[in-house]
Amino acid sequence: MMRKKIIAGNWKMHLTAEAARALVRSMFEMTIDQSRSQVVLFPPVVYLEAFASGMKKEGLYFGAQNCSGKPQGAFTGEISADMIGSVGAQFCLVGHSERRQYFHEHDADCNEKIKALLAQNITPVLCVGEPLNVRDLSKQNEFVEQQLAGSLAGLSSQEVAKLYIAYEPVWAIGTGQTATTLQAIDMHTFIREWLSLHFTPKSAELIPLLYGGSVNEQNAKDLLHAKNIDGVLVGGASLKPGSFASILSCV
Ligand code: PGA
Q: What is the pLDDT of residues 143-196, one digit of tens each?
């Protein structure tokens, strides 16, 4: 099955308003061949409304980096899925390794967030991936399997088919040490087989699987042309318009 290639940019906690506006404007100058690719940007949430409802470009979408799993209420500092949807955003990252590491998010939290997002018709981009000590023991499949099982518990095949999943080995994030294309292919193949077994082969086929972790203009081409890699989730290089445009041109 031919899936569009997804080029996603996670800006993390970078850029004040003026710099963020300048970066998003430069993204609007990129050529996006909609028949082949989809670009999704994850700016800090304070800019989401201005970008997602104020700026329209074919093939370019916006998402939040995180959301609450609760629908609404007395949760100071939190942002709900329906708020994200109400400003025109269509995606939300769930369970990024930095959320897991620094904010102690667990698979059960991811599960709650995914359900909250699906209820608002927002596409969750579930992030999974093993730390270095697990990779060193060659236990990465078992580790990711547990993350998937916990995060997707209680979802129907139809619901799961609406997700995107990003494989981001923790040891490759922000380190400059990207996984080899073969390591990424192996894990993506494992994830798709696992999804096919636990849901339906049809739903597993529909889910775009992104690779993330030190993606740049040098390694993007190999990754984007590899079997079972449907896109990339780019951190550092998404803050540099030239690099991000070069990654997009690798599709
Ligand atoms: P990086 O980040 O590209 O800077 O390694 C990727 C991510 O955390 O999504």
A: 999 999 999 999 999 999 999 999 999 999 988 888 899 999 999 999 999 999
Q: Is 104 among the residues known to form the active site? A: no
Is the CB–ligand 1 distance for residue 236 below 6 Å?
yes
Told to judge if 198 belongs to the known catalytic residues of this protein, a careful annotator would answer no
Cβ(140)–Cβ(148) below 8 Å: no
Distance CA 173, CA 165 (A): 16
224 Cβ inside 6 Å of ligand 1: no
Distance CA 90, CA 85 (A): 6
Say how many Å lie between the CA of residue 190 and the centre of ligand 1.
21
**Are 171 and 129 contacting, i.e. CB atoms less than 8 angstroms apart?**
no
pTM, full prediction: 0.97
Residue 230 dihedral angles phi and psi, to the nearest 5°: -100, 5
Q: Any idea which residue has 């923790």 for tokens?
A: 170
List pLDDT tens digits, range 186-231: 999 999 999 999 999 999 999 999 999 999 999 999 999 999 999 9
What lies within 8 Å, CB to CB, of 61 at 6+ separation is 38, 39, 40, 41, 89, 90, 91
